[in-house]
Design a protein that fits this description.
The protein has about 350 residues and is mainly beta. The chain has two domains: about 1-60, no CATH class; about 65-330, Neuraminidase, CATH 2.120.10. The protein is built from five helices and 23 strands. The two termini are about 30 Å apart. Mean pLDDT is about 75; it is low at about 330-335.
């Protein structure tokens, strides 16, 4: 069987094999690394990893989009600790280890590679409590760099970003920002911008704090209308679930496309009690108590899965699987990268 696979691999030119492999899902590529040494070398190449990600990301339907739920499939050095997900970008997950002195962790679940990122302050919990720290992960295409953005409140709002390529922290001007963010420390990364939900004032009016990855600046995004909101990432766009008290107490789903808000044709009664995570192809995925649920745009239950975890929204994230690695300039060792 092995000799047959080797012979078949020699029939097609390697450049043609590459064009075919570029359209395959990550799960298939992982298996096909065993076909031959040439295929292993090709699939493991950083150039192919980038081409594959860009090809699948541009496709109408990305077959590599997954809902990650934290389980035992974690880097060995943090499997026994309490963790939360702070964001994701291009196949990498930003994890927080809730142990004194532990750094943040960048982790690619597909390749197993991971890298620690030190906090910008010696003791982040000195800000008051662990819930007073907000973080996010984004990618700057112009410089091929991953940025870890952290904000906290200690007498005044303070924000910094960590450049993976330069291995350094820099301060972000934030004098005009609101004092507090809601108790949800994970950001949503969409179209080059990180988003957090924040309180506008003591009356608990909401707004959105946005960080432009390329421009390295913070700004405020207004809500489409007033009311009580939740937040999620729907179909690759920034999404909001809005509780409308004037129309039979139903949830409305809003998404931002090209800097403007659009209301989707989704009916979700209040008694569903669903915390939305993702909306695509006419179906909404979210959490309800200890269940992961999928409902139609008419509010009909399609599928459910029992999950056993507190703070489920901080234990799961929608992300796109990839074979990408962090920039070499970061100075990672092969051992820590899991290679």
């Amino acid at each position: 069987m092995k000799h047959e696979a080797e012979a078949e691999a020699k029939v097609l030119p390697l450049d043609l094999v590459e064009k075919i492999l570029l359209w395959l899902p990550i799960k298939s590529l992982i298996r096909f690394r065993c076909v031959s040494k040439n295929w292993l070398s090709l699939i493991s190449d950083s150039r192919f990893a980038k081409l594959h990600y860009d090809t699948t990301d541009a496709a109408p339907t990305n077959k590599n989009t997954r809902l990650l739920y934290l389980s035992s499939e974690l880097p060995l050095n943090c499997r026994h600790f309490s963790l939360s997900i702070l964001g994701s970008s291009r196949g990498f997950i930003l994890l927080r280890i809730h142990v004194y002195g532990a750094p943040l962790l960048l982790w690619n679940p597909v390749t197993g590679s991971h890298r620690s990122v030190p906090y910008p302050v010696a003791d982040p919990d000195a800000c008051g409590s662990s819930n007073n720290l907000w973080s996010g992960l984004g990618y700057d295409e112009s410089s091929d760099d991953y940025l870890v953005v952290v904000g906290w409140h200690q007498l005044r709002p303070q924000w910094q970003y960590f450049s993976v390529r330069t291995n350094s922290w820099k301060e972000i001007e934030c004098g005009h920002l609101p004092l507090y963010l809601v108790d949800d420390d994970s950001a949503r990364f969409c179209n080059g911008v990180l988003y957090w939900l924040a309180f506008k004032d003591i009356a608990l009016n909401f707004l959105i704090v946005a960080f432009d990855i390329a421009g390295k600046h913070l700004s405020i995004v207004s809500f489409p209308t007033s009311g009580s909101f939740g937040r999620g990432l729907f179909a690759g766009c920034l999404g909001l679930s809005y509780l409308n008290f004037t129309e039979d107490q139903k949830f409305e789903i809003w998404v931002m496309k090209e800097s403007s808000w659009t209301k989707l044709n989704v009916v979700l009664p209040l008694d569903h009690g669903i915390h939305p995570l993702y909306f695509t192809k006419g179906e909404l995925v979210g959490t309800k108590n200890n269940d992961l649920v999928k409902v139609s745009d008419k509010g009909v239950l399609v599928e459910s899965l029992r999950i056993s975890c507190r703070d489920n929204d901080l234990k799961m994230v929608m992300f796109t699987q990839s074979l990408l690695s962090l920039p070499d300039e970061f100075g990672c060792t092969g051992e820590e990268q899991g290679k």
